């Protein structure tokens, strides 16, 4: 099986202190791409392997050398990254305020936006994006974003705003409409003019209230594919993209034009080390597809980081093709790297030793300072 993508690969691409980091200019002069790290709460947090700077914007990671594992001479075991924020022991409200609110408000002003979680399986991506049903305070970025959208619609009485939702699942390299099950065979990713993409055949639902939007979210979540393995009793077996399509027009200007934007809220399936999860049968097959698609996503990210590259391989997978205008397009993007901070899981977070790509290793060296 292809080796899983690692959180560190994305940090290399977007490390603000890296020479590989692209120009990052967005609305109001802020960054187009912002990266945050969120740690999964645990009583066994590996403080000796993961350190944070006092300003909460630098993370240092160390991997233990294991003499039992044919360690290559001079293999790198230390990494330092400068990020936009570290969310350690942060509440759901703090995560939303730091990582997502500005992107959501930007979408209402006409800027495309994407918030995406990535990391190994069991690191807390779905909890960050969707939340838990145990209490209202534990709701995640997606329900909070939907609430903010409709609160802003009410505040902006001088604008006519239309909100529509779509909910896409990518499962084993097939596209599924989570709001219209059974129509997957008719879906296709289509390139548009100007570098954009859309999914032909995906249902788009007009919503008038936060309650209607949440009903669609919960309906889609019920149709999502999950399974259990040794690291996660409810492991997401697919990548999911909830898109909020926004169209607005001034009520007061006679010659006002319609302004359109879309907000992508992405929950990626987690990378898996198959020997550790003990996956078999269908779950093993799903994990192979997940790891392969995440590897292709890493390749696209690394190609974006290499300014000498004219071609970015977005078409290698359904995931990269669908996210084409979320990573490389005119879009305000936030990436939340979910880290499982126990010593037993540190290798899945930081180890580049299984990555065969020379470009990946070059970017690692450029990212460390």
What would you say about this model in short?
By secondary structure, the protein is of the alpha/beta class. It has 12 helices and 16 strands. 30% of the residues lie in helices and 26% in strands.
General description of the model:
There is one protein chain. The chain has helices at residues 7-14, 92-99, 101-108, 125-129, 141-155, 210-222, 274-277, 281-305, 318-322, 324-327, 346-350, 358-367, and strands at residues 33-39, 50-52, 58-62, 78-82, 85-87, 113-119, 159-171, 174-177, 188-191, 197-200, 205-207, 226-229, 232-236, 239-250, 259-267, 332-339. It is α/β, with parallel strands linked by helices and 369 residues long. A hairpin with an 8-residue loop joins strand 14 and strand 15 (259-267). Helix 1 (7-14) crosses helix 12 (358-367), helix 3 (101-108) packs parallel to helix 5 and helix 5 (141-155) runs antiparallel to helix 6 (210-222).
For the residues shown, what is the average pLDDT?
77
Radius of gyration: 20 Å
Helix and strand composition category? alpha/beta
Percent helix: 25-40%
Element pattern in H and E: HEEEEEHHEHHEEEEEHEEEEHHHHEHH
Strand content: 25-35%
Shape: globular
The strand count comes to 16
**What is the count of helical runs?**
12
Spans of at least 5 consecutive residues with low confidence: 1-6, 22-31, 227-235, 351-369
* Distance N to C terminus: 33 Å
Query: Largest sheet, described in full?
Result: 9 strands, mixed
């Amino acid at each position: 099986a292809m080796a899983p993508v690692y959180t560190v690969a994305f940090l290399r691409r977007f490390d603000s202190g890296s020479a590989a980091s692209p120009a990052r200019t967005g609305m109001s002069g802020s960054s187009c791409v912002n990266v945050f790290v969120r740690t999964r709460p645990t009583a066994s947090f590996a403080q000796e392997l993961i350190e944070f700077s006092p300003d909460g914007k630098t993370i240092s990671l160390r991997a233990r050398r294991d003499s039992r594992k044919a360690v290559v001479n001079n293999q790198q075991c230390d990494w330092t990254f400068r990020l936009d924020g570290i969310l350690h022991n942060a509440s759901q409200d703090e995560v939303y305020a730091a990582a997502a609110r500005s992107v959501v408000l930007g979408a209402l002003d006409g800027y495309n936006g994407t918030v995406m979680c990535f990391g190994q399986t069991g690191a807390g991506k779905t909890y960050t994006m969707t939340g838990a049903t145990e209490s209202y305070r534990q709701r995640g970025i997606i329900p909070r974003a939907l609430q903010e959208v409709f609160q802003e619609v009410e505040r902006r009485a001088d604008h006519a705003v239309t909100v529509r939702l779509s909910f896409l699942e990518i499962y084993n390299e097939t596209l599924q409409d989570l709001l219209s099950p059974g129509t997957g065979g008719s879906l296709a990713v289509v390139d548009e003019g100007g570098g954009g993409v859309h999914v032909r055949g995906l249902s788009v639902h007009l919503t008038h209230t936060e309650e209607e939007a949440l009903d669609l979210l919960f309906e889609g979540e019920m149709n999502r594919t999950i399974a259990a393995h040794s690291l996660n009793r409810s492991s997401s077996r697919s990548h999911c993209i909830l898109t909020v399509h926004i169209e607005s027009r001034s009520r007061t200007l006679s010659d006002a034009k319609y302004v359109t934007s879309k907000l992508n809220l992405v929950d990626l399936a987690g990378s898996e080390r198959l020997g550790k999860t003990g996956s078999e049968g269908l779950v093993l097959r799903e994990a192979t597809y997940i790891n392969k698609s995440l590897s292709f996503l890493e390749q696209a990210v690394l190609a974006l980081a290499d300014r000498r590259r004219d071609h970015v391989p977005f078409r290698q997978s359904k995931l990269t093709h669908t996210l084409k205008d979320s990573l490389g397009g005119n879009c305000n993007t936030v990436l939340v790297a979910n880290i499982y901070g126990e010593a037993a899981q540190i290798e899945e977070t930081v180890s580049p030793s299984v990555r065969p790509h020379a470009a990946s290793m070059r970017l690692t060296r450029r990212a460390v300072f």
